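[audit] Reproducing an earlier prediction to check determinism. Same input, same settings, fresh worker. If the tokens differ from the archived copy the diff job will pick it up downstream; this log only records the rerun itself.
[audit] input (146 residues):
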Amino acid sequence: MNHSPSHILAEYLIGEGILIDPDDSGSGNWRVYIGSTPDGIHADHEVAVAVDTAPVKDGRVQGTPLFHHGVQFILRSTDYSVGYAKATEIAEDLATVSHEDVTVDDDTYTIINVTQTTGVVVMGQEPGTKRRELFSVNFLATLREV
């Protein structure tokens, strides 16, 4: 695969209108970044970051190893209820995915399914601030390059 599982799931959620492409010049909350979020005084307060976590190997299909790719979404918000609700929205949307095609750049992937492995985890306040709450939710995704 030319793109990470976190990038593929983030692109899917952008297409669903749940999150926003960070390169989108329009206004709005819930831009999604891959790997890390921007910080600093001018950084958006309501953002998500998609991070790759450990995959789970689940046997082989015709000799090819089958992996369920670990993906974590971490969200930060100035409002506890808003952040918790967005994490829940992400989990509810990904729970419905079944054989959905997603195009990232010029590559197409099929998200075969996504399994939520944790509930919404409240991670407390962002270090160094007393303004932004952190949440996470974790998944295993079965993906195939088309």
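[audit] rerun output stored. Observation attached for the diff report: The longest strand covers residues 47-61.
[audit] end
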